[in-house]
Amino acid sequence: MTLVDLKSRWNEVLYDLEAEHRTAWLAMFDGRLARLEDGVLTLDFSDATKLSGGHGYERANKPSFVVALAAAIERVTGQRLEIVLTADG
Fold this sequence. Notes:
single chain, GMP Synthetase, Chain A, domain 3, globular, 4 helices, alpha+beta, three-stranded mixed beta sheet, 89 residues
């Protein structure tokens, strides 16, 4: 799977995550799909910190939220990915 492939299915992933773990969805939906290399997905939250009251990196950086997102990706795409969160841009 490529980053383009995942981006094309990202809304499905987010809908699945919302249905399974709404709090994780609230924390993760502002993340930008930055990179997908060797089974590692990097979500970038640097833009989210610019929004007033936005859901930033600090909220998303909870292990249970990362696990929930990885599970949603796997349910939707069939791919198991490691997820890395960053706010570095």
